[in-house]
Amino acid sequence: MSYMDTEGLVSNMDPARGMEELPLLPALSSMVKLIPKSLIEILDWFVENDSHAWIVGGANRNALLGTSVNEFDLATTMTPDEMKTYPDTIPTGERYGTITFRNRGDCYEITTLRTESGYNDGRRPDEVEWGDSLLVDLSRRDLTMNSIAVNVSKKVYYDPFNGCEDLQKRLIRSVGEPSKRLSEDALRILRSYRFMDQGTAGIWWPEKQLADALRQTKPMLDLIASERIWSEFKRILLGKHASEIVQRMANDGILKQLFGIDWMQDDVQIELLNHIEGDDVIDRLVVMMRDFSTKDCEHLSVKLRLSGTEKKNLIRRHSIMGQIPENMDSSMRVYAVAIGEWSYQHLRLERMFAQHDASLNYSVEDLQQLIDRLMNLKIDFQVEPLAGGEYIMQQTNMPQGPKLGALKAWLFYEQVARNLQSIDEIDTLLCTLSWQTEDTSRWPKLQFP
After folding, report:
1. Contact at 8 Å (CB) between 27 and 63?
2. For residues 394 and 392, what is the distance between their CA atoms, to the nearest angstrom?
3. Which of the pair, 390 or 9, is modelled with greater confidence?
4. 23 has which bridge partners?
5. CB 158 within 8 A of CB 21
């Protein structure tokens, strides 16, 4: 018996009591028709075991917005122990009622209906009890747009907090009293800002009560683990309307609360977030931090608990901003090999700043010439030194030591700058360099700036 064709065969007390059953809207109906077979089979399993399950959260919201539905989350009357009788599960968040079901290579998080109480740490409930009311479960969610549930078998949906109406009005509104909802999990503060960016659907601002609550509860952000903050902030930075949302966060004091760093109103660095090419989130941090110090970047890295690679890229890229190479083939080669493939993006970012800041000592035209020259040079970013230590010792009788290392670096610099291709060219070059001097401090090496 298929879940798609049954109509409430379970005999338990109706967990949807207290809510109006509404026929599926066209958008929700289209979503149901496209549900993967892997999920249909899981829903069938719930029916076979006399239990209820509903699609909740982001899938319904995205379907109503006309955006792609990439994942399905479900709520159920089954307890975690009962769900684990399914053939293939992962106890993702068993303590809080969430079990991941796997079928045909797909994964679905399914959570037991629950009630919660006490949020003394601002991150998680002190007590979780399994419930039998879908209405109570929906009432503890953050935003009305996320508090819609779909019963696939009955082809109905439940919307007790008028989330559909708020979607139509393009309004961000909390379920119940905003400060209470936000205090239950301070990450909801950042989620609220993320949901303000609705991509092609534009920017949706929060209603006044929620807007006030976001500013009032911001000290609770100190309770959130850095990894969770970075996960949400990444998504905000990569949003279509990142400039407007991040500026709103700055104006509301959220950024200062998070990072101890203050951005101005109508900040140019934030304004440029919408103009960055590519989807490298570290580039967005680099642009935001352009006028701040390296120490500030290190502090930000700690606050967000960036990975070693993320921190290295942020500090390195930040140190280069505001500096450009000379418009000559040799200088461009050295610059490009020293910076690596990010050199293209660096010049694009500098061009972007030049478009918005006439006080810089280089123009948009200057940057475009550099970009064109770099493209024409066809740089080999993986180039290796032609002259190794043993070769240099044979040619110069120089013993191992710092001077040998300095000469090797100098030869590699010249190799890149002059675009040398053979060891014979290096041999000729050696005859022209004044490597006999003991003062190696002035010898060039491959670096930028």
Report:
1. yes
2. 5
3. 390
4. 156
5. yes
**Quick check: 346 and 320 in contact, CB under 8 A?**
yes
In tens, the pLDDT along 139-172 reads 999 999 999 999 999 999 999 999 999 999 999 9
Rounded to 5°, the CA angle 19-92-98 comes to 15
What pTM, to 2 d.p., does this model score?
0.87
Distance CA 289, CA 353 (A): 13
> Are 257 and 218 within 8 A, CB to CB?
yes
Residue type, 266: D
Q: Can you spell out the DSSP letters for 8-46?
A: ----S--TTTTS--EEPPHHHHHHHHT--HHHHHHHHHH
Residue matched to tokens 């030194």: 385
CATH number (3.30.460.10, 3.20.20.10, 3.10.129.10, 3.90.226.10) of 22-169 reads 3.30.460.10
Euclidean distance between CA atoms 101 and 91, whole angstroms: 9
Q: Is the pLDDT of residue 118 over 80?
A: no
Say if residue 398 is exposed, middle or buried (CB neighbours under 10 Å; 0-12, 13-18, 19+).
Answer: middle
Helix ranges restricted to H, 163-267: 163-169, 178-184, 187-196, 208-216, 226-237, 242-251, 254-259
One-letter identity of residue 365: E
Give domain limits for the chain. 22-169, 170-276, 384-449
Could you tell me which residues come within 8 angstroms of residue 310 by beta carbon, excluding any fewer than 6 positions away? 282, 301
Q: For residue 163, give the DSSP letter.
A: H
167 to 22, 63, 187, 293: CA distances (angstroms): 16, 11, 22, 42
Structure tokens at 121: 């740490």
* Degrees to nearest 5, angle at CA 10 with 5 and 16: 95
Whether 8 shows a pLDDT value over 90: the answer reads no
Give per-residue pLDDT as tens, 56-74.
Answer: 999 999 999 999 999 999 9
Handedness of CA 240, 263, 221, 171 (dihedral sign): negative
Tell me the pLDDT tens digit for each residue of 288-323.
Answer: 999 999 999 999 999 999 999 999 999 999 999 999
Superfamily of domain 170-276: cca-adding enzyme, domain 2 (1.10.3090.10)
d(CA 416, CA 412): 6
Distances (CA, A) of 83 to 90, 309, 339: 10, 39, 52
Query: Tokens 């409430």 identify what position?
Result: 8
